[in-house]
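An instance as discussed:

___
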Amino acid sequence: NYTRLAYIDTGLPNMDDHRQAAKEWAERQGWEYTLLHGKMDLIRRLMGGDWDHEDFLVVPPGQTIEASADEDIVRIKKSRTGK
């Protein structure tokens, strides 16, 4: 059911072969190919431990997550005691 392949160019060096392979794959499948420009900021922050609560859900040890019915998508599950 796919109709489009999007390649995200993050500016990393030496990725021309990967971008070209993605484009060729889309052509073979008869899919629309889209080149998107992205940034590495989120991945750098993830790897560096710079986890603000706007972009990351930090789940303390022993806690679990649950789906939310709002824009958060998931949240830390509250215990039965409300903590």
Remarks:
- The helical segments are 16-29, 41-48.
- Strands lie at 4-9, 32-37, 65-67, 74-76.
